[in-house]
Automatic annotation (TrEMBL):
Entry keyword annotation includes Kinase: yes
Alphabetical list of PANTHER family matching this protein: ADP-POLYPHOSPHATE PHOSPHOTRANSFERASE, POLYPHOSPHATE:AMP PHOSPHOTRANSFERASE-RELATED
Organism: Arenimonas malthae CC-JY-1
Stated family: Belongs to the polyphosphate kinase 2 (PPK2) family. Class I subfamily.
Protein name listed in UniProt: ADP/GDP-polyphosphate phosphotransferase
Coiled-coil segments: none
Function description: Uses inorganic polyphosphate (polyP) as a donor to convert GDP to GTP or ADP to ATP.
BP GO terms, sorted: phosphorus metabolic process
Length: 260
């Protein structure tokens, strides 16, 4: 990516992050709750999109939920049960990095769920989501789309980069051969769970930066446009001389080893 394109991306993102902060103030002011689900193929860019939203928000208000493999006890629960404790309270935002739709995607394709479990999930998910929406939760569901050629490039990049290798799991390697199966599972999921009260939105993430901007713009445009004035703060001059860090006890700062 050229420096000019990167600068344009950063400028547009910062503009939207200001709007996201205004949205967060509106949520706090009204007590509304926001849930955003990020689904898609491996390497689509879910983490980057989530970070683009969350980085400029108060982490006490905006939480990212990325659940690990269910424990033995959780496997014996009602499927949606382990997601319920992570839902937002008044004024909060929760961003799900994958969500309950694992059952309709990776669990179905990789054989971790039985056909009966998948069928039950597809029947229950709209009911569960209708309960959330009827209770006032603002629910958005995004599918991040990526072509297989682009996906392969990103897998190779992860394998070559030691800082990204943690993103590459044995499941990812097995899933590489199931691109078509994931597409069929996605289509069945859309057919069963795309409803007026909780629709799916597909975003092209072959270019991740463009995809992030498109997703954030869509989210902002589909939330109520209710401006809440930002509290005016001021920094009056301090009295007296400015203080310095001083340590009189046994604990001392680590010696600086770098010059930048």
């Amino acid at each position: 990516m050229s420096k000019e394109k990167r600068r344009r991306y950063q400028d547009k993102l910062e503009e939207m992050q200001v709007e996201l902060n205004a949205m967060a103030r509106w949520l706090q002011h009204t007590g509304k709750r926001l849930v955003v689900l990020f689904e898609g193929r491996d390497t689509a860019g879910k983490g980057g999109a989530i970070n683009a939203i969350a980085d400029g928000l108060n982490p006490r208000q905006c939480r990212v939920v990325a659940l690990s493999k269910p424990s033995e006890r959780e496997q014996g629960q009602w499927y949606f049960q382990r997601y319920v404790p992570h839902l937002p309270a008044a004024g909060e935002i929760v961003l799900f990095d994958r969500s309950w739709y694992n059952r309709a995607g990776v669990e179905k394709v990789m054989g971790y769920a039985t056909p009966e479990q998948v069928e039950a999930f597809l029947a229950q998910a709209p009911v569960f989501e209708k309960l959330l929406v009827d209770d006032g939760i603002l629910l958005f569901k995004y599918w991040l789309a990526v072509d297989q050629a682009q996906q392969e490039e990103r897998f190779a990049e992860r394998l070559a980069d030691p800082l990204k290798r943690w993103k590459l799991s044995p499941i990812d390697l097995k899933a590489r051969e199931k691109y078509a199966e994931y597409g069929k599972a996605r289509d069945a999921m859309f057919k069963a769970t795309h409803h007026r009260f909780a629709p799916w939105h597909v975003v092209d993430f072959n270019d991740q930066k463009t995809g992030r901007l498109t997703l954030i713009r869509h989210l902002l445009d589909h939330l109520p446009d209710q401006a809440v004035p930002e509290p005016k703060l001021a920094l009056p001059p301090l009295k007296g001389r400015l203080g310095k860090e001083r340590y009189t006890g046994p604990v001392k700062p680590i010696k600086t080893r770098f010059e930048l």
